[in-house]
Amino acid sequence: MRSALLEQIYTIVAQIPEGRVSTYGRIAAMTEGATARSVGSAMRHLPEGHELPWHRVISASLALADHEGAARQHEKLRAEGVAFDAKGRVPAHLVWP
């Protein structure tokens, strides 16, 4: 992936406010050419020591993707006050922007 595109993705993710989430697709739509899949790839390959709020990026279904870090992601979001419904989804009013 182009470094300029990665920079766009990381810049957008850095802007997601605490207690809010965004989707891979919404972030992709704010870039110049990323896809939801490429945003997911960028989140999986964050550089060591990064401070990006990767945990605030979720799937379009508003549920956490099934991945190795899902439990940690859930924990981090709950610590920020994000509530989940009985099916594990984030309420739509918490989606940014």
UniProtKB/TrEMBL annotation:
Statement: the UniProt record of this protein carries the keyword DNA damage: yes
Keyword Signal: no
Alphabetical list of Gene3D superfamilies matching this protein: Winged helix-like DNA-binding domain superfamily/Winged helix DNA-binding domain
Domain of life the protein comes from: Bacteria
Alphabetized UniProt keyword annotations: DNA damage
Residue ranges of domain Methylated-DNA-[protein]-cysteine S-methyltransferase DNA binding in the record: 7-82
CDD domains membership: ATase (cd06445)
InterPro entries membership: ATL_DNA_repair, MethylDNA_cys_MeTrfase_DNA-bd, MethylDNA_cys_MeTrfase_DNAb, WH-like_DNA-bd_sf
PANTHER family hit by this protein: 6-O-METHYLGUANINE DNA METHYLTRANSFERASE (PTHR42942), ALKYLTRANSFERASE-LIKE PROTEIN 1 (PTHR42942:SF1)
Name of the protein: MGMT family protein
Lineage, highest ranks first: Bacteria, Pseudomonadati, Pseudomonadota, Gammaproteobacteria, Oceanospirillales
